[in-house]
Design brief:
By secondary structure, the chain is of the alpha+beta class. It is 37% helix and 25% strand. It has helices at residues 4-17, 64-81, 101-117, 168-177, 183-190, 196-202, 216-227, 242-251, 255-261, 277-288, 319-322, and strands spanning 26-28, 35-39, 42-52, 85-95, 121-129, 135-144, 159-163, 208-212, 230-233, 267-272, 292-299, 305-307. The strands form two sheets. It has a six-stranded mixed beta sheet. It is globular, with a radius of gyration of 19 Å. It starts with a helix and ends with a helix. The structure holds adenosine-5'-diphosphate and magnesium ion (MG). Magnesium ion (MG) binds next to helix 2.
Length: 323
């Protein structure tokens, strides 16, 4: 018998993937940020993400609308990482019978606001009763126009780059838990911004793309595995937001550790053709007022991620190993 914690989240997914059949209509199956399915002459990128009370959010602490916002942002980010355009969502919701209706409405207000901000609408779902703990599962479909980005397209020599400033969400969580006044970081955690327009802009320019939901190192590791090459991250190249530097300075935290391993930033990590990388980063910043920073490179070698040439201790978050 194998306990789930022995093989971890990705071991579990690998075992379950072996049980799935293939279909010519499934263009991209298990393993990328979204499944891509053919519907007539069109393609849809489809993803789902589940949030559980007291694991992913706390009803008494977070503002209710932000719980819904975050549920939508997590799936929007996966659609963004394919370079697809969000279309519609279905939401399954399980709640204990004494949960307040008005609180659930607030959560759904935030959810609808986030979907609307990025061009998607709530089109259905399922509602059921459970014993304890609110559970939200959001399925999101997006339109793929002609092509989509995968985790698996990186080539030896490519530069690895990341949008924005990773690590802010993880610092925001720490600030929130410790009652520290750090509004920008807390907002990065409770109201993350999925990089939808950025993903569409990057699509024709990148060899591979993933969203950073579990930490830069772990998600760069997914590019390495899917593309079957070595990704080496330069720890000091990951950009540190000024507010993250201030927070870490004041509270004795390590900004680089947070930027490398902190999850739930929903930035995008991409593999760029090396000769164009500098120009793409400059154009990106001009277009979005947000940095796109080269933080590493791809090379022939074992399909794994390294940080400054060394294997990292623990790359990021695994639900089954964390609990
Ligand atoms: P992300 O962090 O981008 O949301 P995940 O790590 O959750 O991606 O999932 C990785 C891949 O595994 C995705 O292609 C996802 O659809 C697939 N996957 C996860 N759980 C299951 C499951 N229970 N059954 C089938 N596929 C799954
Ligand atoms: Mg993802």
């Amino acid at each position: 018998m194998t306990a789930l914690r022995d093989i971890g989240e990705f071991g579990i997914i690998d075992r379950l993937a072996k049980l799935a059949s293939t279909s010519p209509n499934v263009v991209e199956g298990i393993g990328d940020d979204c499944a891509v399915v053919r519907v007539g002459n069109e393609m849809l990128a489809v993803t789902c993400d589940m949030l559980i009370q007291d694991v992913h959010f706390r009803v008494h602490r977070e503002r209710l609308q932000e719980i819904g916002w975050k549920a939508a942002a997590a799936s929007l980010s996966d659609v963004a990482s394919m370079g697809a355009s969000p279309l519609f969502a279905l939401v399954s919701c399980a709640a204990p019978s004494d949960f307040e209706m008005e609180a659930l409405e607030e959560i759904f207000r935030g959810l609808n606001a986030c979907l609307g901000e990025y061009g998607a609408v709530l089109a259905g779902g399922d509602t059921t009763c459970c014993e304890s703990h609110l559970v939200l599962d959001l399925m999101l479909a997006g339109r793929v126009e002609d092509r989509y980005a995968r985790r698996s397209g990186a080539r030896p020599g490519d530069a690895i780059a990341v949008t924005g400033y990773p690590g802010r969400s993880a610092a925001g969580l720490q600030a929130q838990e410790q009652g520290i006044d750090a509004p920008a970081l807390i907002e990065a955690h409770t109201r993350p911004i999925p990089r939808v327009a950025e993903g569409r802009w990057l699509l024709p320019r990148v060899h591979a793309m993933i969203d950073v939901s579990d930490g830069v190192v772990q998600d760069a590791g997914h590019i390495a595995e899917a593309s079957n090459l070595l990704v080496d991250i330069d720890a000091l190249a990951v950009p540190i937001a000024p507010e993250l530097a201030d927070f870490c300075h004041a509270h004795g935290a390590d900004p680089n550790a947070l930027a490398l391993a902190g999850g739930e930033d929903y930035e995008l990590a991409v593999a760029l053709p090396p000769n164009d990388a500098e120009a793409i980063c400059a154009d990106f910043e001009k277009e979005f007022g947000l940095p796109l920073t080269v933080i590493g490179a791809c090379a022939d070698g074992p399909a794994e991620v390294r940080v400054n040439g060394e294997k990292p201790d623990s790359g990021g978050f695994d639900h089954f190993r964390a609990l």
